[in-house]
Amino acid sequence: MLDVEPPHRLYFEQCGNPDGIPVVFLHGGPGSGCAPGHRRFFNPAAYRIVLMDQRGAGRSQPVGCLEKNNTQALLADLEQLRSHLDIEQWLLYGGSWGATLALLYLRLWPRRVSALVLRGAFLGRLRDLAWFYSADGVGRLFPQDYDSFIKHLPERAEPVSAYHRLLHAPEISVRMDAARRWNAWETRVVMQFLPAGNQGGSMQSDEILRRATIVNHYAHHEFFLGGEGVPLDFEVLNGKPCTIVHGQRDLVCPLESAWTAHCALPGSELRVVETGGHVANDPAIGKVLVEVFDQMAARFAG
Hints:
Elements: E1 2-3, E2 9-10, E3 12-16, E4 21-26, E5 47-52, H1 71-84, E6 90-95, H2 97-108, E7 113-119, H3 126-133, H4 143-150, H5 159-167, H6 172-190, H7 205-220, E8 242-247, H8 255-264, E9 269-273, H9 283-301
Parallel strand pairs: 4-5, 4-6, 6-7, 7-8, 8-9
Antiparallel strand pairs: 1-2, 3-5
Helix pairs in contact: 4-6, 5-7, 6-7
């Protein structure tokens, strides 16, 4: 555990080769936390693998805490962890929301980044929020599921704000019902195209509530980026290896997001996985990620 800004204590772990290439995994969500499978993209003989649960997520304490839980704090925690582990430079790997954090960290501490791998790039713009939560976005592809997501809301035009009120209602039954509906909508979109055996197990009620509350907290505050999302005036890559892996069939983050990031990062490589969706445990996406990290390891070894 790493003590950061009170009241937060962060869970982190290391595995692989202590003398290997330092790589840090930045999980998505926000609020999803790390899992054992997240280690499996990296050859343990080549990499010193670092995983961390962000504030309120996974095994970090206090569980689900929203106090002082914002994007800028998560970035400061990441830099504090790097210093704590005495790592001079590390490779950043971020998926979805983790890709957002990786790009923002690169802007703040470019000299601490040896390379960058992004998967399912999410840029945190208002248009990205509208795509996922408004009736004019991905909801047009799943009208019945979207109707179940919004039909009970008093303000259907502003689902993120409406859910924020419900998820902070005094009655636990109201909060729990809202969390289940929020989770059902996210699962419907995220898991599209994913084989049944790769969808993971069901979550307990407390985890459903925690995750929904943290994601909604960030969405309600426009990911603490002022509605503009990740600033894309990059001048800091300077020849560092950068690969963006994105599924053509990603319905959470349309391919335009990855293309926009690719154009803003001179020298980056964009690998579009034709049959891939959003998540890393999509077999097509996972296969490419393993290839990318093997190639990165060979590049550093050479």
